[in-house]
Amino acid sequence: MTTSNSPSVVVVGAGFAGLIATRELEAAGIRVRLVEARDRIGGRAWTDERLGGHMLEMGATWVHWLQPFVWTEITRYDQEIYPSPDIEDAYWVSDGNVRHGTEHDLDAALTRLQEKIFEGSREFFPYPHNPLALLEDDTADPELIERFRRADEGSVLDCLRDGGFTKEEIDLADSYWSAGYQGPTSTASPLMAKHWAALSDHRSSLMDEQTLRFKLTKGMRGLYESIASDLRADIELNTPVERISHGPSGVEVLMADGTVESADAVIVTVPIGALSNIEFDPPLPHSQRKVVDEGTNSVGFKIWIKVEGHHSIIAGAPGEHPISLLRSEYFLDDEKFTILVGFGSDHTTIDLDDKDSAQKAVNVWRDDLRVIESGGHDWVADKWSGQTWATLKSGQFFDGWSRFDAPEGARLRFAGADYAKGWNGVVVDGAIESGITNARRIIGDLKPQR
């Protein structure tokens, strides 16, 4: 379909995966057209000023040196990190009763639960950045493979309902994983939690450190803007894609403004929740359409809440409550105010920008916390994402993200955190991994044969 002898690629989406893929392709001498539907870059990583002009992350927040792809970029662009604050008081809810202790008490209670939830992680994921490696091992025990496949069935908390754990313990686990899966634990694939464990040396403390501890001093914006500054291609904002025609010899990409770009290949970095915005010709195969139609488990939200006074707290509540996990992130103005970050499993249960709605949610633990302001971005209602991060429903570990791994020579490829093999759907590391991987595959496909 392309008429130029010089290889060219269209990259759809200027989040981390799109920016990284563009940089990789350009380094190989390939011409790139980078288009973005939003009026900004970054995708689901978005550093904004909220709650009185404070730099807050609307989406992706935490990073870690054990996440190899993002840490390489942090090093490359001389970015710095700093820790979220230590916590003094912990609260958790069960059957309408509020428990109070220290963060250590909460961690100790969670550790026993996580060990049960993580069972099998070492056997199932010998190579965590190749999560389906066990299925590719001809010498693997068939019984182990069968257990691996069954572990994608049911829900993440089923393993706790055998009588060995109390209602309070199950509620505590539900609090943690309602926030982690950004959706109901009743439909959450048990394998995703086990995979997170494998990426964290099978330790809940390290998993928490990788996903909730260290932030970028200049915010995610400092990193994605640094990557963007290295690109030669113009980033075309406010340029949605309506249709992608693809075949063995190239692609044609139709923009919403009616322009058509012919190229040798296209990398689509659109989240699963927003793929329905694009018409594909020929249509996506049934296995991929099924995932798009079902959606992921991510129907939750992230909220920032400013309260009066100094409060060093972490709090959890089961998924039937609006906020499942709440913790202090910033102490302001000589301890006159605290900014809390919260996560919930259902974006329809709260108005992110309404302080009264936030106040009602916070009252679950303490009705003496006075909410001054709240804010966030509803990623599920956002046309260009349709979800928060791509956590997995039961059955989607094997019949989900991996269905988008294109075969050798394919001119249509999908990249982004939703399609990553390592930190799949959750953190920026997976987006960068997927951007690099798919760009390199296209480079190999387009390399002149000698």
What secondary-structure arrangement, pairings included, does this model have?
Elements: E1 8-12, H1 16-27, E2 31-35, E3 47-50, E4 54-57, E5 62-63, H2 68-76, E6 81-83, E7 89-94, E8 97-101, H3 103-117, H4 121-124, H5 142-150, H6 167-181, H7 190-198, H8 204-212, E9 214-216, H9 219-229, E10 235-236, E11 241-247, E12 250-255, E13 260-263, E14 265-268, E15 279-281, H10 286-294, E16 301-308, E17 313-316, E18 325-332, E19 337-344, H11 355-362, E20 371-375, E21 412-414, H12 428-446
Parallel strand pairs: 1-2, 1-14, 2-10, 7-17, 11-15, 14-21
Antiparallel strand pairs: 3-4, 5-9, 6-9, 7-8, 11-12, 12-13, 16-19, 16-20, 17-18, 18-19
Helix pairs in contact: 1-12, 2-12, 3-6
Structure notes:
The longest helix is centred in the last third of the chain and has 19 residues. With 450 residues, this protein is α/β, with parallel strands linked by helices. The protein has a seven-stranded mixed beta sheet. Strands 10-2-1-14-21 form a five-stranded parallel beta sheet, with helices on one face. Strands 13-12-11-15 form a four-stranded mixed beta sheet, with no helix packed on it. A hairpin with a 2-residue loop joins strand 11 and strand 12. It has two domains: 177 residues, FAD/NAD(P)-binding domain; 208 residues, Alpha-Beta Complex (Polyamine Oxidase, Chain A, domain 2), CATH 3.90.660.10. 29% of the residues lie in helices and 22% in strands. Helix 2 packs across helix 12 and helix 3 crosses helix 6. It is built from twelve helices and 21 strands.
